[in-house]
Amino acid sequence: MAARHKKNESGFDRRTFLKTVGAGGVAVGVLSPSVADGQGANAVGPGAVPIQLNINGRVHRLEVEPRVTLLDAMRTRLGITGVKRVCDRGTCGACTVIVEGHTIYACSTLAIEAQGKPIRTVESFTEGTIVHPVQQAFAEHDGLMCGFCTPGFVTSVVALIEKNPKPTREQALKALDGNICRCGTYVRVLDAALDPKSSTGGRRG
Ligand code: FES
Ligand code: FES
User: Fold this and answer.
1) How many angstroms is it from 155 CA to the middle of ligand 1?
2) Contact at 8 Å (CB) between 92 and 118?
3) Of residues 170, 24, 18, 11, the one with CA closest to residue 91
4) Largest CB tally within 10 Å, which of 72, 73, 129, 170?
5) Which residues form ligand 1's pocket by a CB distance below 6 Å?
6) Ligand with minimal distance to 87 CA
7) Which ligand is nearest to the CA of 89?
8) Cα(71) to centroid(ligand 1), Å
9) DSSP character for 176?
């Protein structure tokens, strides 16, 4: 499960992201999504601009500078802390979220670019006091030690089994190759992903 680049579904890939934000974190303006749609340039920023994010079925309205990442917007502005910040550079998967069925790194996605698409975080998997079958499988297989990588792994497994409820070992390895566990719980994470109990989670939204 070595680090793998996850494509930003907005078409704003990591290379573009890094160029835009700048290595020193300098505030710069960015182009609005209309540019990506070929509708002409419409620069916004560098000051805060109003945006709307649809996260876990709820619309959040906030103002952020265009350089703010989806991860920062969620953790520091909206209190959605299930997404973890570890590397903050698109290599570890701790910040994995699901956008339209695909996993992306929230740390490598600008909040402004995440507008208009439903975003799902690990918080959405639990219904009241009932945990998601994938979370149950992680617990039963001891698929965590410090647990810091776990939300990202659980999110990647949920995205996998929603598309493919009965993945092969190879398919599970491929789906998880963008997530890193520094405690080395890979074998148990894989056991959890392949547990038939996890596959029942594919029927949930
Ligand atoms: S914190 Fe986003 S990939 Fe590591
Ligand atoms: S359980 Fe500690 S980093 Fe994965």
Assistant:
1) 13
2) no
3) 18
4) 73
5) 85-88, 90-95, 105, 107
6) 1
7) 1
8) 9
9) T
Nearest ligand 1 atom, CA 88: 1
Three-class secondary structure of residue 204 per DSSP: coil
CB 125 within 8 A of CB 135: yes
**Ligand 1 centroid – CA 162 distance (Å):** 22
- In order of 61, 134, 192, the CA distances from 169 in angstroms are 41, 16, 11
Ligand nearest to the CA of 83: 1
Mutate to test the pocket of ligand 2, among 85, 122, 145, 186 (most ligand atoms within 8 A of CB): 145
Counted residue by residue, the chain has a size of: 205
* The dihedral formed by the CA atoms of 144, 79, 120 and 63, expressed in degrees to the nearest 10: -150
Which pLDDT tens digits describe the chain residue by residue (205 residues)? 644 545 544 444 444 444 444 433 333 445 555 444 555 567 887 899 999 999 999 999 999 999 999 999 999 999 999 999 999 999 999 999 999 999 999 999 999 999 999 999 999 999 999 999 999 999 999 999 999 999 999 999 999 999 999 999 999 999 999 999 999 999 999 999 999 988 886 545 4
Q: Is the CB of 185 under 6 A from ligand 2?
A: yes
- Answer whether 138's CB lies under 8 Å from 144's CB: yes
Is there an atom of ligand 2 within 6 Å of 181 CB? yes
Structure token pair of residue 37: 């749609």
Residue where the block lists tokens 């038939």 = 196
